[in-house]
Amino acid sequence: MNTLVKRSDVAKLAGVSEATVSRVLNNVGPIREETKNKVLQAAKALNYQPNSIAQCFARGKSGNIGVIVPSFPKVHMLSTYYFSEILSGIGRRLGESNYSLLLVFQPPDQPKNYVQLFQSQKIDGCIILGAKNHESDKEALIHLHHLDLPFIVVNQTYLDYPFHTIDAEHYEGSYKAVSYLINKGFRNIAFVNGSNDFSNSSERFAAYKDALKKAGIEPMENWIFQGNYSRSSGIKIAKEIAPLIPQLDAIFAANDRMAIGLMQGLSELGYKVGKDFALIGYDDSDIASMVNPPLTSVKVPLFDMGKIAAEKIIQMLNHEITEQIHIRLPVTLKERASCCKQIT
Amino acid sequence: MNTLVKRSDVAKLAGVSEATVSRVLNNVGPIREETKNKVLQAAKALNYQPNSIAQCFARGKSGNIGVIVPSFPKVHMLSTYYFSEILSGIGRRLGESNYSLLLVFQPPDQPKNYVQLFQSQKIDGCIILGAKNHESDKEALIHLHHLDLPFIVVNQTYLDYPFHTIDAEHYEGSYKAVSYLINKGFRNIAFVNGSNDFSNSSERFAAYKDALKKAGIEPMENWIFQGNYSRSSGIKIAKEIAPLIPQLDAIFAANDRMAIGLMQGLSELGYKVGKDFALIGYDDSDIASMVNPPLTSVKVPLFDMGKIAAEKIIQMLNHEITEQIHIRLPVTLKERASCCKQIT
């Protein structure tokens, strides 16, 4: 039933050989104008679509940009604001190009054989999301780098390696958030961080300590908590934080999902955001403005980070990049109603 | 710098021709055991990865499943719960297979040339999201169908065409939602639907009317509103609904995003969910449990719909499907605190 038009059909209608059809359509070798016109007319009449795989094969290209997304058995990773926004940004830019977006799901416990994606010509370039400080991540990236394969890492910075990266000003954003709380008169500020496997977690932690110290406040070891950027980890930490609430003024959470987990967990234990404690989230995800009270948060331009990553990969493939890319986009504080505490 | 191993390198090390390497690795033609071992050992020593494009080209396959996602200039489509969940489900199943996921962004005003994706061998099969009742959508699908190309439509049913579809029981879900409100004693129930371009919108509308009629309530023309499934359309409709609130008991919204827009818009006008009116959403997105009061909603198994769509496409490509697929998954009502109204 499948009646796709083949090169041989064009050759037959034009009355030439298949090789001639190829030469005309790939624009190689000397061809008489008359022959060329016959082939082009036949191709048009039959609505012949040159086989892009064959073309890519001839060029050694797939026409695809791979996007690596970490994949965990029970987590709907693409349903998180963080990944979906970056992916939307990548898709927006690739949609304007001739490249297609190939999603590659990477389970954390599987070998990160990104080079094979190039070797098997599945992709021409690669955007890596969710990369960590782990040895296995670094080795995989070093391998790509040594082979001079085009790739860029989003939202993760490796200080000791010259990888191309698109990141955001997480130190500055976190410093701003904590200073904002201090300026509101809060001095007893807890911090709920994500995993230290990410450079942005370490940057937030450094900024938290620095902002407190700048204000003459000594960071308290037992006011620092670590979740895994999920809402459930926020709910879990709420139980640990609850006994401290009478002393605490405010909590700075390293993303909105954990902040909302804290809101919900503490609410169940009788403590209300904006009344018993102030709360700042991070990312400024769409939920931040939907919860009650709306959540003050640090806006990270995730969509733009994805868009720029795609732009830079396209430039690499066009050989327009000569120096290491290390872009860090600015972040901004979005003030909402969650940063109050009733004075008792 | 790019030191990818080529077929010629394997041939050289094994001391055979490139054609022999191909025959061994593709397992075609008669080959002496000794030659075969030499080639395999050389391939192993060099860590040679057979070129998957070349393999696919030989087989006429790309190894990719295309997923069509509608793309609008200002909307981050993948960041909506609806699309990201379906995509997560598709990704989960494809991640367990040898197929890769090729994302195809389809602007609504551009020709829907899905056949070309097959002709140019970008994809072997296709999952279509966001398809409408429009002529241009139907024509594109009829074209695929006539060419016997493997595709499946998610969450859209065409009664007059024998397309493979994965859908959900939207009539039953909506009937359940409206009946639930009636059983709570509410009789004055408004309905905020999405676009009638989608079969699920029409199903919800039919169920809304039927459930009311079953209870002896005549549907009121001016209590039926139409948004576009976005939060901003909910906020906009809030202004139209506000003057009716004193008479209205409850609102049934065709998705959670519009329901949350209604909550926010009506809250700004002084009307509170769970106090001045009851509210039911649809989809049971992650936000439903995060808003205050938490939103009663109809849970649609979007992740599973994506997973099954991928499963069925793989079966089609394995020639394991002989009959039309028309699966409709059940939906369930998730009761939360938004379905109260204070009796005054």
TrEMBL record, chains A, B:
- Where does the source fall among the domains of life? Bacteria
Q: Does the keyword Thylakoid apply?
A: no
Where in the numbering of this chain does the HTH lacI-type domain appear?
5-59
InterPro entries recorded: HTH_LacI (IPR000843), LacI/GalR-like_sensor (IPR046335), Lambda_DNA-bd_dom_sf (IPR010982), Peripla_BP_I (IPR028082)
Identify the PROSITE patterns for this entry.
HTH_LACI_2
Q: Which residues cross the membrane?
A: none
Alphabetic keyword roster? DNA-binding, Transcription, Transcription regulation
What name goes with this protein? LacI family transcriptional regulator
Q: Which organism is it from?
A: Evansella vedderi
The lineage, from the top, is: Bacteria, Bacillati, Bacillota, Bacilli, Bacillales
